[in-house]
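Tutorial, part two.
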Amino acid sequence: MQTQITPAYLETPEGQAADQILRSCVHCGFCTATCPTYQLLGDELDSPRGRIYLIKQMLEGHEVSDKTRLHLDRCLTCRSCETTCPSGVQYGKLIDIGRELVEKNTNRSLPAQFIRYALRKIIPFPGRFAMLLRLGNLVKPVLTPGLKRKLPQVSKPVSYKLQQHARRMLVLDGCAQSVATAQTNAAAVRILDYLNIQLISADRAGCCGAVSQHLSATDEAKDFMRRNIDAWWPFIDEGVEAIIVTASGCGVMVKDYGHLLKDDPGYADKAKQVSQLAKDISEVLVNEKLDALAKRSAKRVAFHSPCTLQHGQQITGVVESILTRAGFTLTEVNNSHLCCGSAGTYSILQPVLSQQLLTNKLANLNRGKPEVIVTANVGCQMHMATKSDLPVRHWIELLAEMIDP
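Running the prediction step on this input gives:
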């Protein structure tokens, strides 16, 4: 499409990137068919095509209104539209640019500002997040049934004996995952140890920066990125094979470090190398010999592929193939391309839409009568567990349990 971005903004890196992305869009509308919010609301402005038009208007100098902010806020950033788009429009990058512009040109209410600030100052910090969950569980007996189900327990520390191996990989401990689902990385350590791969945790690494990035606190997000790069760099110098990420939401973020820090002279080259090393754990295991793990299993498993795995990282069918090789029976899941409604902080900031998506997702997952639901992202796992009658786990846990004690 043609653009007339204001000269002042066109001179900035963000403006130039937005201009290139906008010009690649031909307004064909294929994206509307796979957009979860458009399917629910039927409003053109709640589709990728409509939001692209709103962002274009802002960049061309039109008024930035609360209505514009509302429709951009409703976007899940699931990036299903990117998978569908025949023109390769980088919608995820464009929505980040648009949201940052909205934050600079509109005023949120004080309660809304507080919630967003609190999310940025609690979730990325495991100590603070764990303390909040413990306080919540203390008052759990007096909460309504709905609120009770939304409160996860703080995971007990999982002890495992680290073995020394010639092959070594780093692992991102993460923030929320290290508190609420610590068993995920423990399972990853066990399965990789079985494959003679040593998984290393860097003490000073933490949140990947995704929470801040998607709440338009880009400078804060970059601080998290630089801290992780600094923590990982000594191990990278020593020649680790990969940086393993077991939460697909974090994985898509770490793989984007090279792009997000490309204008940082002190970190651009390092960030690019980090992104090249970053791997979802499925990308590693699919190339390893897992035949010895294969057992006859009657267990029926429904796999929810997170948006950040199938759309963000474009990894499709890999986890399913690993689970099938390991002997599990995967059930068919209708509309598997659609979001579960977790989407980082979306379930908190847009609860009504999030719950609608969750209800639809669980109905599709349960239709094949599985015994367990598995996924590849901590946010999806926690979100689905609030409403699921079946256990919801990370798929790597099932694989680790197949290893003989």
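The longest strand covers residues 167-171. In part three we will examine how such features are distributed along the chain.
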